[in-house]
Structure formats: C-alpha cells, structure tokens
Amino acid sequence: MEDFYKEYILDHYRNPRNFGHLERADAAAEDLNPLCGDKIRFELEIEDGRVKDVRFSGKGCAISQASASMLSESIKGEKLEDVVRMSREAVLENVGIGISPARMKCALLGLKVLKSAALGEIAGWPD
Amino acid sequence: MIATLGSDARARALAKDFPILAQATSRGKRLAFLDSAASSQKPQAVIDSLVHYYTHDNANIHRGVYELAARATEHFEAARAKVAHFINAAEPAEIIWTRNVTEAINLVSYSWGLGNLKPGDAILTSQLEHHSNLVPWQLLAAKTGAELRFIEVDEHGIHQLDDLDERLRGVKLVALSHVSNTLGTIAPLETIIPKAHAAGAVVLIDGAQSAPHMKIDVRALDADFFGVSGHKMCGPTGIGFLYGKRALLEAMPPFLTGGDMIKRVQFTTTTFNEIPWKFEAGTSNIADAIALGAAVDYLEAVGMDWIHAHEQAMTAYALERMRELEPLGLTLYGPPNPADRSGIVSFNLGDAHPHDVASILDTEGVCIRAGHHCTMPLMEKMGWTATARASFYLYNVEEDVEQLIAALRKAAQIFKLG
Known about the structure:
The structure holds two protein chains of two kinds. Chain A is α+β, with helices and mostly antiparallel strands.
C-alpha cells in the first residue's frame, strides 16, 4: 500500500486528460457518489458506432478523477458495444494501485457513467 | 514523551477500559481512533452489560409474570431512570426509548408536528444541521404548509443572531443541534431558547454531539424536546432516547402503534398506554437500553465536566499542532476560539480530496471521517466539496494527535504539498 498514490495517479488528478465539455455531444451521462460527493459526467461524440471524441468533467478524489481520466484516454476509437462490455477488472488494472473495498465506488464511478452514456446511445434513449 | 495535557494521564488510564483500542491495525500500526463523533467505542462495562443480560436476564418486558421477566423489566426501567437523571429530566416518564436521534426527531415531527402546524406557521432551524434535523422538517413543512426558515451561520459556522427576533415571528417550532457534527460549533442555546419560548415556539434540541461530551441539564436549558443517540456516548448501536416535557408528550398522539403501547384494545378502538410507553410500540431494544444505562454509569463515574474539559484541552492542542501544517496547505474550519467548540476538528489538506487524505491516514492507523458529514447544504453554502474530520473523546490522548500530525505530513508528502 506504500504505492497507494503513484506518481501517475496524481498526474491524472492534477492534469486530467480530456477534461471539459464537447461542443457537440451525441451521448452524455452523469452520476454522483453521495457518500463522498464525487461527481462525474462523460460526454461522447460518436461516428459510425465508434467513440470519436470524449470529455469528462466533475470533481472528486484522486482515485475517481484519475480513473475517469485514464478511462477517457483508453476509449477513443473504440466501438460503443466494446465500451459497454468493458470490465471493472480492466479498469482496476489500468488504475494499477490497490483499491480497498471502501474506495471501490470511487475507482469505478467513471466506468459506470461512461457505460450509462454508451448504453443510452445504443438504446436510443431520448435526450 | 512528556504530556502537554494535564488530563492526559487519566485519559490514558481510561483508554484501557476500551478493549478495542488496544489492537494494532493490519499494518501493525497503533490505532488512533479519531472518529467518535460518528460512533464512540464501548467500555468493557457496557460490553459486559450486554453479555450479562443475555446470559442471565433475557425475557420480554412488561409481560411475563416469572422472575426473569420481572428482572428484565426492572433493569430496563432502571436504565430509563439513569438516563433521565443523566440529563436532569424531571422524571423517567419523560424519557422515550428510540433507536437514535433520527428516530426521536421523526417521532416529534409526526406526532407533534402534524397536529400543531398549519399554513402560515414556521419552523426555524439552522444552516448547520445534520440531515436528520433537516429532512424531517422539509417533509413536515411540505405536509402542513408551514414555512421552513434558517438561522444563518458565518464562515466559521457561528450562529448569526442579530435578526433572531424577526426570524422567530410566526415560528411554532425551533429545531437546533446543540453541537454541530461538522464544525463543532456549540449553539448559543441560552440566548435562543428563551427568545423562542417568548415567541411562542416549542424547542427541540438535537443532542447527538453534546450529550456524550458535556453535562446536559434539560431543565436548566428549558428544552421541550431533546434527542440523544446511545452509540455516540459509549452505549450500543440501536438505542437512543427522546426527552420531552410531560405536558407535551401527554398531548401528543402515538407515533408507532402496536403492542405494549396500549391499555385496552377492542375490535374498533384502542385506549393508549400512559407516557412513556404510549410511544414504545412492540418489544423494545431491551438489552441495548440496559447497556446504555451502564454507559451512563460509566460516564458519570468519569465525570461529564472532566470529559468536556479534557476534550476542549485536546482540541486546543490539536488545533495548535495542526496550525503548524498550514504551510503544507492545511486549512482549519469552524470557530477559531476552542471555547466555542467541542472536540470536532474539520479541515482540508491542500488540493488533496479528504477521502484520499483519510485513506492515507488509515494506512498509518489514524481513523478519521471524510465527506459531507450529512450536512450537504452547509457544504454547499461554504463552497466545500467535502472536509476531513477528526473528533475526540474521553479516551483520546496526546499520542493520538502526534500520530494524526505525522500521518498528515505523510499525506502532504504523497500529494507533494508545501
């Protein structure tokens, strides 16, 4: 647990990638973790069933923000149906530090929101 | 180490009464438990009371004619008398067992509130309140058409009373926490309660964060209702109580209904029991009520005035030591003068999220709370996403503060602060 907060986690926390909003979002979703007040929003631009561009926004702990930031980097060009199938294990592996049960929701909040946005698009939910 | 605190030696001895504190964490760290505001630890006497009850006395109360049932009833009612004495109620009948303050407040909201509020009336609370002393009033206001009003607090969480008379106009109920669970602010009840009564309002005090830590005298305060949670004052979880003045309780309809709260039931009508049993439907939390009585015995033996003095000294010392970390980005919240606050210290460390700070502190054996502390409107008003919170009790010693400071330095180092 000495590697609890690695250099790259702090880097993603302080310099989140793909942070902000899209001018034209085809799909979006947001959610919060009422326990800690963490909030994340994902916006997707979609072309031919693939993620053309992505932005996320929100605030929260280093784990939730870094996880969402890394997630945003990993999905560009991916098919929506693959985004929907992304496993929590893959996300945790990507985060790469030991996550205690109490912090699991922080690490997975980004994935939950991202999947909501992708699923909404696939299902054709009305805006 | 030479203790700076005069009360440290006694606290060190008292800590030995709490078996849980003797353990090391899974990382082999000494446990520094600084989250008693969420729930306190339990002394051996309280644990023994629970075991003794189930080993020797367990039976349902107010029903059986056999010896066990008589003993269970006797201990249960003796515990009620103990907590009545603990807060200086006029009589045990003014004590209603509940699960906690939340249930006590909901009882008043439903039983007193629904029958006494109408459109044009107002409920006055403050911006500091725990959700448990806010959400019930939001619902009550919506149901009755009454207006919900707030005493504002300044940037330190101190009540602003300049316009109190104006705010009290038309108010039928004032509901305030005695001590803020987020900032530790002690409410100026000696000013507010007489004015509230003069304005014709009934006053409910949420004593969750005060009763465990200072001598409570509900008659000197002249509170009409006073709620207490047992688990924050060395008692078990699942037991607390509502104090209410006899005249008010007698005039109120029951909240929950069922067995034990009745005198006579016919197919279509029921005559209710007298107070306090009128409000205690179903089998009560007998073992835990008795163990709360044991907790009261323990606290009274230690001395509530000593506990308050120790915590204030501890808080003053912690604030002083934490100020040393201000160059690392540590920000302290709450009343600047330790005399205006209880043993609760809310803070943030640079741009590190309090959950991350709490996780790092956990690796060093330091237990603190992080988040919104069930006071989301206060967080929003102050512009804070969340805070970290350390809270002290009778068993905390100087070493706990040292461990907190060292762990905060480690967190600052990990987050490259300063």
